[in-house]
Amino acid sequence: MDITLWHNVFFFLMAGVACGTALAVVLAGNVVRMAFYLITSLAAVAGLFFLAGAQFLGAMQLMVYVGGTLVLLAFGVMLTARGPLSSMRTGGGQWVLAALLGGSLLAVLLQTVVQVGGPGGEAASTLAAAEETQSPTTAQLGLGLLGVRSQPPGQALARPAPPPAPGYLLVFEIISVHLLVVLVGAAYLARAKWRRPERLVIHHPPLAASQQLTTDN
Amino acid sequence: MTAYFINLLAGYPAWHWLVYLTIGLVQAALFLALAMLSVAVFNWLERKVAARVQDRLGPTRVGGRFGWLQSPADGLKLLCKEDLIPAGADHMLFRLAPYISFCAAFTPYLALPLAPGWVVQPLDTAVFFILAVAGLEIFGVILGGYASNSKWSLYGAMREAAQVVGYEIPLGLCVVTVVLAAGTLDLEQIAEAQRGWFWHWNLVNPFLFVTFWIYMTCATAGSNRAPFDLPEAESEIVAGFMTEYSGFRWSIFFMAEYTAMLLLSLVAAILFAGGWNGPVPVASLLGLTDKNGPLAEWCGHALGACNLIFKGYLGVTFMMWLRWTLPRLRVDQVMATCLKYCVPLACAMLAGTMAWTFLLRGGF
Amino acid sequence: MQSGGFYDALPAMNLLSQPIGPAHYLVVGAILFTCGVVAMTVKRNAIGVLMGIELVLNGANLNFVAFGSPGLAGGPHSLGLDGQWIAMFVIVLAAAEAAVALAIALCFYRNFATVDVDRGEELHG
Description:
The complex is a heterotrimer. By secondary structure, chain A is mainly alpha-helical. Among the domains of chain A are: 1-81, Up-down Bundle (Four Helix Bundle (Hemerythrin (Met), subunit A)); 136-147 and 167-185. Chain A is built from 7 helices and no strands. In chain A, helix 2 (31-51) runs antiparallel to helix 3. By secondary structure, chain B is mostly helical. In chain B, helix 7 packs antiparallel against helix 9 and helix 11 (248-272) crosses helix 13. The radius of gyration of chain B is 22 Å and the shape is globular. By secondary structure, chain C is mainly alpha-helical. Chain C has helices at 5-9, 22-42, 46-67, 82-112. In chain C, helix 2 runs antiparallel to helix 3. The N and C termini of chain C lie far apart (51 Å). Chains A and C meet through helix 1, helix 2, helix 3, helix 4 and helix 5 of A and helix 2, helix 3 and helix 4 of C.
C-alpha cells in the first residue's frame, strides 16, 4: 500500500480521461468541441506514456502530437468552419450500424488483449516496482537512432544476450527526408491560389465603313 | 524528504500513501506560492518599470509611498467584477480556456529544479518536458478566442497561435544547442556542469552567448510580450483573444502569462547563466556544502535557490523593460523576424557550438 | 484467466483485480482504437474523420509502449526499447500524415465550399 496505490490511482485517472474523452469525440456534434476532447484524450495518453516509463515518448507526444498536430487540426477546423455545419449530422440508422461495428470490434480486441500474460522471467511483477529498478534513459534512445544498441544501466539479463539487433539509423534518415517531403508537399497543396486580375477591356463601338482606318494615307 | 518520512513510518505501511499525498501537496503548494507571489510582484514591478521608463512615478498611494499593496488591490477589484459571458459564446470552452492556459504554464514547474535535489519530479528529459508542456498554452488562446464569438477574439487568437507556434522553433533550436554543449537533457546536470565561478557559465561560450539572446527574443515572443504583442494590443484589435474576458477569468490569463514568463526566465537562467551557481561560489567559500553536514548543505541549496529566483526575476524585468522601450512589430515583421532572422541564426549557432565542442573539448 | 461465470462474460473485468500491468494499457489502447474507427465511419466532417485517424494511431502507440514497458522486461513478450522507438516513428509519421490530410481537406473546401465528405460524389457511378 505504498506508491503502488498512487500509481494505480493515476493510471485509472488517465485511462478514464483518455477513454471518456475519446468517446466524447465520437459523440460530440460541434467540431471545435471534438477538437478539444481530442486534445484532452491525447494529453491523457501522454500521461499514460509517462506512467509506463516512456518519459521521452510522453514529452514527445505532448510536443509533437498535442502541441503540433492538434494545433494544425484546430487551424483546419477554424479555416473550414464556414458553411452548413449543422447539416453534417449522421442519421440514426448509421449510428446503430456504427455501434454494432464498434461493439463487435471492441469485443474481439478485448478477448485478445486479456490473454496477454504478466511479465516473464525474473523481472519485476508490477510496473510500479519495475520503474524503480531500471528505466531506459534518453541516451539509449538517442544511441539507437544512431544505430547503436546499448543495455540499460544496471539491468541483469534474465537470459543470454541475443545477437545485437540493428539500430534505427536508416529508419531515422528515411523518416527525416519523408517529413521534409511531406511538409513541402502539404504546404504546396494548401497554398493560396492567386487569381490573375482580370484585364480591363474597353469596348469600342464598331467604326462605319467610311471611317475605318487605312494604312495608306 | 519522502524517504525520510517513509522511514519514520516504516512500521505502518498502510500510511505510506498518505505520506506521498501530503508531500505531493506540500510541494505543489510551495511552487504555487512561488508562482502566485511572483505574479503579484510582477504586477507591481511592471507598473513601476513602466512608470520609470516613461519618467513618472507609478503607484504611490495604495499601501505607502511605493504602492506595495497595489497588487492585492488589483486582485480584489478583479474578483468583484461582474462575470460576463457573451451571447452565442460556447459556454464550456469559454470557461475552460483560461484554466488550460494557466495549467499549461504552471505544470512545467514540476520538472524545474531550484537547487540540486530540490525538484518535484526529477525527470531525465526535464527541459524537453518543460518546452513541450509550455507549448500547450496555445490551446487556451485558440479555444478562448474561438469561444468568445467575436471577430477580434478570433483574429487575435489566430495571430497569437501563428506567432507562438512559429517562435517555438528557434526556441527549441536554442535549447538543443545548450543540450548539445552539455550532453544531457536533465536540467540539474546542465546546471551542475556550470558549478564554480562565472567563467564556468555557459554564457562564456561565444556561440552560447548569442544563443542566449536569441532565446530571450523567442521567449519574449512566445509570451506575447511587446514588441511582439500584436495579438493583445489595445490600439490594434481591442484586446485580442482576451477581449471578452473580464474579472477573474482575465486574471487567470494574466497569471498564465506571467507564470510562463517566469518559467522561461528560470529555464534561461539554468541553461545559460549557471542556474543556482552564482558568479562567485559563495556557498562553497562559506563552507555551506555537504561536507559540513545536512544543515549546511540545506543552507547552501537555499542560497542557490534564491540566486536562481533572483536571476529569473532579472530575466522578467528585462522583458518588462523591453516592453516599454521598443515599438510594436507588425504581424508580418513578427513572422519575418522568426523565420528570416531567428531560425537561421539559431541554426548557425548550433553548427558553431558543434564545432566549438569538437575542437576545444575534443568531443562530446 | 479465472473461470468465474460472470468474469467470462466481461473479459476485461478481472483485470481490475490485478496490479497494473501491460494488459491494462492494451485495454485502453483497444478502446481508443475502437473509438477512432467508429469516428472514422460516423463523422461526415472531413476533419472529424481525421480525428478518428489520430485516435486509431494513438491506440496503436499505446500498444507499442505497453509491450515495451518495464513491466514485461525480460519476458518473452517484451519489445524492450524497440517499442518506444517504433512509437516515436509512428508519432512523426502521424504528424506528417495529418499535415497532408489537412491540406487535402483545405483543397476540398476550396472546391466544394464545404468539408462534408458526403458531398464528394462527382466520381459517383
